[in-house]
Amino acid sequence: MGNKLYHGAAWYPELWEPAVLEQDIEQMKQAGINVVRIGEFAWSAMEPTEGAISLDFFVNVIQQLSASGIETVMCTPTPTPPIWFTHGHPERMYVNEQMQVMGHGSRQHACTNNAVFREKAAIITEAIAKAIGPLASVIGWQIDNEFKAHVAECRCQTCLHLWHEWLAERYGTVDKLNEAWGADIWSERYLSFDQVPQPNPAPFLHNSSLSTMYQLFSYEKIAEFCDEQAKIIRKYSDAPITHNSSVAFHVDNERLFRDLDFASFDTYATWDNYPNYLLNNDLWRNFKQGRDFWIMETSPSHAASLESYAKPHPNGYLRAEAVAAYALGAEAFCYWLWRQQRAGCEQPHGSVLSTWGKPTVGFANVLEVAEARAAIEPAMLSTRPRQAEVAMTYSDRAKAFLKTEPHQKLNHRALVTDFYERILHTGLHRDVLPEGSSLDGYKLLLTPFLPHISAEFLERAIAFVERGGVWVVGPLSGGRTEEHTLHTDAALGRLEQLAGAETVYTFPMDGTGSIGRAFGAAEPLSLWSAVFAPQDGAVAVGTVEGGLTPGLAFLTEKTHGQGKIVLLGAMPAGEQLLSALIVHYADEAGVTVRTDVTKGTIVAPRTGEDGDVWVVVNMDGAGGRVTLPAAGRDAVTGEAVAAGVLKVARYAYKVIRFEK
């Protein structure tokens, strides 16, 4: 891609007449838009009847954009198969968990595993790649759109057959499956793989292994479809390929991005949920390490559909979002959408222009982003995000376990965001790491909400500890096997032996009156919890007061090699105790990449050949401050900045360069 920061929007030229397209392109230039994304829902415009494919319109549009200095990300249109594909073919359609067959008229209505769908998707993708791949202004590709955003695991007959194949490959024999799943429970034992059902409607809950494995099967199959599409595109284009995903969708993002060239995500977090927005940036930076990510979709004002809407951003917030993203490693900040849709189910959605071509309530904020992008671009291009010394583990596979076993309707995204927010407000610079990431360079590793800790992850984490790292593991971590069953040797399996703590009980702490005390703080304990009896040199750092298990530990630590393993058995229900825990172990681990920035404001540290850069952004609209460790220079204005307290106003930002 080009040596620039991108400011873009999704555009649907197939929906508008030529005069509107000319007006759009002219106004894009005025708004500082330098890239657009097209084609993702346009299959029927490209192939109105089966086999009658024409891409001339899109080639011409891309050339029009290029003539105005606007580059293009081209999409494959596979989320919306045309009526000629779907009409009269229920066998090709997605089937939900209630066994309802989807019909034509929305999106993601076809089963992406269906052989006919794969064939037709390959044909249209190859035609697009042939026609558009040679165009120099096509700087990237997006495959499909938001995999599994509106649907989850399909239950059609195609998927049933593939499920049986997947099980046979995974287990080898049905006896091994029965043993792994404990299938003698409730007479579930199977005599052959083709008897294993999908987790369809049943009188009560399915076996946990069946439910979780079916999710992992679905994760793998959608990633395989993405890989197929990418392979076709690469025959005709060298431009990098991505997919626009989210932590909210039913995918394994780590697997999905494994064979793609760069990572991108869509976010519609409201202004008062800015920690969720920042979490995505800190995570997507690490799916393709060393390669900048894209925010492919966010609203200039608000998200909406025919049946709902979100609160609009306050003036100034959009600029804060954009600067924070660029500072944390984004190459692009893009909107959904450019011109408001006049029809369909998302007519009320926030856009840059209205259907009648006038600025919307978010337009002035888009202009602010364009100005900020130009102002910070030199500093961003001459530096890279600095690796943090604190890492938090993230796993979509864990999300599958919690979907199967949500206890009291636990939501993986909410749990992870809440924990992340505690780290964020300490001023520690942090990376959110996919489960398979390297741990090199980190000093403190936090692993919450990982029900199954794989043998491979455990080995890497232990090696990290032996080198001097501090690993805080829990809560809700380590208590399940790979097959989503309970350990039979110890509650947390091998982790218990390594951590030197015997789990005495596991039970739900909520409502029991259990109070956890550690680091001078005391708070109620919550969630499904473990309490420990330290042994083999481990010590109790946090103990339970009251409730069912007074005197037992909910927090233990043990020296291992040059580092330390810390078990957190329960989730503190307040803010003070967990924050104190994080700061305590950051201090013990010797974490230096940190600031005293006030809550609601962030510091994104970057580094380059000419020195370090801090990008300070206020996210909560209350303004903030941070102490600069040395004198520097404002990279935007060129003015000298003294060491000491630096203040930033409501939704404002500062870019401070520290000379070597």
TrEMBL record:
<dbReference type="GO" id="GO:0046872">
    <property type="term" value="F:metal ion binding"/>
</dbReference>
<feature type="binding site">
    <location>
        <position position="156"/>
    </location>
    <ligand>
        <name>Zn(2+)</name>
    </ligand>
</feature>
<keyword id="KW-0326">Glycosidase</keyword>
<keyword id="KW-0479">Metal-binding</keyword>
<feature type="domain" description="Beta-galactosidase C-terminal">
    <location>
        <begin position="600"/>
        <end position="657"/>
    </location>
</feature>
<keyword id="KW-0862">Zinc</keyword>
<dbReference type="InterPro" id="IPR029062">
    <property type="entry name" value="Class_I_gatase-like"/>
</dbReference>
<dbReference type="Pfam" id="PF08532">
    <property type="entry name" value="Glyco_hydro_42M"/>
</dbReference>
<dbReference type="Pfam" id="PF08533">
    <property type="entry name" value="Glyco_hydro_42C"/>
</dbReference>
<feature type="binding site">
    <location>
        <position position="145"/>
    </location>
    <ligand>
        <name>substrate</name>
    </ligand>
</feature>
<feature type="domain" description="Beta-galactosidase trimerisation">
    <location>
        <begin position="388"/>
        <end position="591"/>
    </location>
</feature>
<feature type="active site" description="Nucleophile">
    <location>
        <position position="297"/>
    </location>
</feature>
<feature type="binding site">
    <location>
        <position position="154"/>
    </location>
    <ligand>
        <name>Zn(2+)</name>
    </ligand>
</feature>
<dbReference type="Pfam" id="PF02449">
    <property type="entry name" value="Glyco_hydro_42"/>
</dbReference>
<dbReference type="GO" id="GO:0009341">
    <property type="term" value="C:beta-galactosidase complex"/>
</dbReference>
<comment type="similarity">
    <text>Belongs to the glycosyl hydrolase 42 family.</text>
</comment>
<dbReference type="InterPro" id="IPR003476">
    <property type="entry name" value="Glyco_hydro_42"/>
</dbReference>
<feature type="domain" description="Glycoside hydrolase family 42 N-terminal">
    <location>
        <begin position="11"/>
        <end position="373"/>
    </location>
</feature>
<protein>
    <recommendedName>
        <fullName>Beta-galactosidase</fullName>
        <ecNumber>3.2.1.23</ecNumber>
    </recommendedName>
</protein>
<dbReference type="InterPro" id="IPR013738">
    <property type="entry name" value="Beta_galactosidase_Trimer"/>
</dbReference>
<feature type="binding site">
    <location>
        <position position="107"/>
    </location>
    <ligand>
        <name>substrate</name>
    </ligand>
</feature>
<keyword id="KW-0378">Hydrolase</keyword>
<feature type="binding site">
    <location>
        <position position="159"/>
    </location>
    <ligand>
        <name>Zn(2+)</name>
    </ligand>
</feature>
<dbReference type="InterPro" id="IPR013739">
    <property type="entry name" value="Beta_galactosidase_C"/>
</dbReference>
<dbReference type="InterPro" id="IPR017853">
    <property type="entry name" value="GH"/>
</dbReference>
<dbReference type="InterPro" id="IPR013529">
    <property type="entry name" value="Glyco_hydro_42_N"/>
</dbReference>
<feature type="binding site">
    <location>
        <position position="111"/>
    </location>
    <ligand>
        <name>Zn(2+)</name>
    </ligand>
</feature>
<feature type="active site" description="Proton donor">
    <location>
        <position position="146"/>
    </location>
</feature>
<dbReference type="GO" id="GO:0006012">
    <property type="term" value="P:galactose metabolic process"/>
</dbReference>
<dbReference type="GO" id="GO:0004565">
    <property type="term" value="F:beta-galactosidase activity"/>
</dbReference>
